[in-house]
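Need the bound structure for pyridoxal-5'-phosphate, inputs here:
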Amino acid sequence: VTNSDTQEVIDRIRAGTHAVVDLDAYVANIRSLRALAPEGAAFMAVVKADAYGHGMLHCGKAAAEVVDFLGVARVDEALRLRRAEVSTPILVLGPANPERLAEALSNGITITVGTQEHLEQLVRAVESSGRRATVHLKVDTGMRRYGFIGRSAVDAAVALDGHPEIDLEGLYSHYSSADETDLTPTRDQLDSFNEVISGIRHHGIYPRFIHVANSAGIIAGIAGNSNLVRSGIATYGLSPSDELQLPVGFRPVLSMFTSITRCHQLGPGEGVSYGLSYKARASEDVAATGIGYADGLPRQLSNTGWFVVREQRASIRGRVCMDQTVIARPVGAQVGDRVRVFGAGQAGEMTLDAIASIAGTNNYEIATRVTARVPRLYVRRGQVVAWEHLLLGESHIVVDDIDCEE
Ligand SMILES: *Cc1c(COP(=O)(O)O)cnc(C)c1O
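Answer from helper R.:
Posting the output first, comments after.
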């Protein structure tokens, strides 16, 4: 691909609905989190779910330069990173699909074991493939989702440790409520976890990594005796919850843009979009834009959300459709104008938190909703360094050697 072709593709992506991912903000957020974690702790950037909608490949590559581990939920997510030549240790946090174990082991992917059944599957995969396995043992201290409870975790550690081809590298648990004001459940979880750690040490087993804190745990300063922390949401510059906000200095990484596709005038009493749920009282200028719920914009924003065009706030008129949304037309707005859908909020646009609040969910869900047809531009120092268009199967690095902002 030549430089002029590259510029043409970037211009074409910019002209339509697209997401911009600020890799400088991402790396800076990771650095800020490291500073909040226990001194000397290793850092895992969680890039599951396509990096919370930000794009796993380019976020994973950017993170790999500054972290010790990448975290994903599924073996397939780890395989995608390995196929893109990411050699950083990757931990699969969720239960591994047994059909995928052999491939995971041959790609040097670290597996979580959290039930007796999965332990046996792993042992079988190790024995039949002849590969070594690096394993983290998951302890369920309250989530009741995945992991061994209490005494059974100690037994599992003893079983794994006794296997010559298995390296029990880590022991971890996961907080259910570290993003809430009341930290009692979190302290209880930490107590249960510490009990398991002692039980395992009693057998002379000392896994290299002990970890429990997610973003909320890191920010709230409750990482226990961890020497590894795992963070997803905060690396993307998003707060874990309304109660637990990010400290100042963190910056949202993801912004979304679209463009105006048509301008027209509603007559008095005329309705707009499905169900004609918005009716103009007097004549009103409106503009159609090229973004809808199939791009990840919640339909709950109908008649409630807003975009920003030419530095003016433009309310959504009528229902958000699958592929288009109508807005009040700001003064001077024209077909082709760039429309800010959401972002850091500095231009008055909706933040992911604002959208989540309207949609009755959290910022995690809104970020992960950004769909495969939305091309993403990756930016460092204001310059596009990569793009990805999942729908077209395109992923391209424009500049490889640019340093991130200090
Ligand atoms: C998703 C996940 C995380 C990251 O959580 P955040 O709240 O996004 O920081 C950490 N640990 C486990 C086990 C997870 O599944």
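Comments: The mean pLDDT is 96. The radius of gyration is 24 Å.
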